[in-house]
Specification:
It is a single chain. The protein has 16 helices and 13 strands. The chain is an alpha/beta fold. It has two domains: 214 residues, Rossmann fold; 181 residues, 3-Layer(aba) Sandwich (Rossmann fold), CATH 3.40.50. Strands 3-2-1-4-5-6-7 form a seven-stranded parallel β-sheet, with helices on both faces. Strands 10-9-8-11-12-13 form a six-stranded parallel β-sheet, sandwiched between helices. Helix 12 links the parallel strand 11 and strand 12. Helix 1 packs across helix 16, helix 4 crosses helix 5 and helix 9 crosses helix 14. The longest helix has 19 residues. It starts with 8 loop residues before the first strand and ends with a helix.
């Protein structure tokens, strides 16, 4: 139900990732900005001018609701130094990969860059935004009549910035964590004293937040384990979701071959090696016709993963594409016969539920998930959206591929057999409703209601 004018409140959203940034993090914030007004909260957005994003998607600028005030402030970006240390070209996408397989060799320049990141960039490389964002953010909060500040991290600098703005404007603040902060799989390995300082920042955010929004349940378990003395009741789970409107106006890509699509990034321990092993075996046995099969990877990939694409046993059926605008990515998902999902299979990854899972569900195509028996597996199985295979189960992965391939050969298509009602419950609109409930909870508590 849409709130009446007298019930309306203003939320200042603090997020580094906002159009023209691309990637999954921006989708969560963009959809909250789109749907929060239906539940009584009119957003204003504080973000950066000319961010050094890993991916850009200019098309997303057209999805910002025209009535939403957006302030873009200057930010000192240190990744120019990183590029110089590692020999990368100016303007090239920057991904600092610390999530490598054990024993992988690393260039001296990469090790040096990682030391700089771990020792100096605390809590992250966006820390310079604290110097340029606080005063403009406080003025902006007052100008738009903000009732509450909501910050989204990573980068974790956003939490510190949101807290400072809220204090300066005299209004409450609710941070969200889309991933754990310190000692996460992709977190830098910090030497002391940087490690201790980073943990103190993390604990201070946990301590000061009246409520802490998390994108998946493992984030709460992580913080409770590190800081058992803090209030464990303040977590509020608001998962990712999908937007039906992203799907409704998009024509699926037409594929004349049996096509499995992956969208996103792959690097380090998140890689398709055993999936490709299964494909290679099926091709070698003649159970897949290489002229009738395509495995399409769309996104950003580490060089070690790209080398896997070039393996002689699978190179003839693998297609690699770079990052594409979001609408094109959705069209690829809709036109696929199956969607490949690769989940990190290392200790601590069992509870990770990436935003890509929900986009896959929204496309309503069969999901082939490869990874641990964790939260992603539970979600896919509970909805009946597809098959979940352990990374080491090469034969099982092959059987799942073959089952879908034979269905396509027999009928010219593959069917999504997931529960439609459960799938529709994963919508971004429902997630915005949940977030609005958290913001209301904090405001009522603040005003003694």
């Amino acid at each position: 139900m849409r709130a009446t004018d007298s019930d309306r409140k203003r939320v200042l959203v603090v997020s580094y990732y906002f159009p023209p940034s691309g990637g999954p993090g921006v989708q969560r914030i963009l959809k909250f900005v789109k749907y929060l007004p239906e539940f009584g909260f009119d957003p204003a957005v504080l973000t950066v001018a000319e961010g050094d994003y890993p991916a850009r998607d200019e098309s997303l600028l057209g999805e910002i609701p025209p009535k939403v005030p957006v302030l873009r402030t200057r930010i000192p970006e240190p990744y120019g130094l990183y590029r110089k240390l590692t020999g990368k070209k100016k303007g090239s996408a920057v991904d600092v990969n610390v999530n490598r397989p054990r024993g992988q060799r690393v260039a001296t320049s990469e090790r040096m860059a990682e030391w700089v990141r771990g020792m100096l960039f605390v809590p992250d490389a966006r820390m310079g935004w604290l110097l340029t964002g606080v005063k403009p953010g406080i003025r902006f909060a007052r100008d738009v009549g903000a009732d509450i500040v909501y910050s989204s991290s990573p980068p974790y600098t956003c939490a510190l910035l949101g807290r400072s703005i809220a204090r300066g404007a005299g209004i409450p603040w609710v941070p969200e964590l889309r991933d754990p902060w310190t000692e996460f799989l992709s977190a830098p390995r910090r030497p002391e004293p940087a490690r201790g300082f980073d943990r103190r920042l993390e604990q201070s955010v946990y301590h000061d937040a009246p409520r802490l929004v998390i994108a998946w349940s493992g984030i709460a378990a992580d913080l409770r384990g590190k800081y058992p003395q803090e209030d464990a009741a303040k977590f509020r789970l608001v998962p990712n979701g999908y937007d039906p409107e992203d799907v409704s106006g998009v024509d699926p890509v037409h594929n004349s071959r049996f096509t499995i699509v992956y969208t996103g990034s792959l690097y380090g321990v998140r890689n398709p090696e055993t999936f490709l092993d299964a494909v290679g075996r099926l091709l070698a046995r003649g159970e897949l016709d290489p002229d009738r099969v395509r495995i399409r990877f769309i996104g950003r990939f580490g060089e070690e993963v790209r080398a896997m694409f070039r393996r002689p046993d699978v190179a003839g059926v693998v297609e690699e594409r770079g990052y594409v605008p979001h609408a094109e990515s959705v069209a690829e998902l809709l036109g696929a016969q199956a969607l490949l999902l690769v989940v990190d299979d290392v200790p601590g990854s069992e509870h990770i539920v990436p935003g890509k899972v929900f986009e896959y569900l929204g496309a309503m195509r069969p999901v082939l998930a490869v990874g641990p028996d964790g939260d992603v597996a539970g979600l896919v199985r509970s909805i009946g959206a597809g098959r979940v295979l352990a990374r080491q189960d090469v034969d099982g992965i092959g059987n799942a591929i073959l089952e879908l391939y034979r269905e396509w050969l027999a009928t010219g298509k593959t069917e999504y057999r997931g529960d439609l009602e459960m799938t529709e419950r994963q919508s971004r609109r429902e997630r915005a409703r949940d977030l609005a409930g958290v913001l209301d909870e904090v405001l009522k508590e603040r005003h003694g209601a």
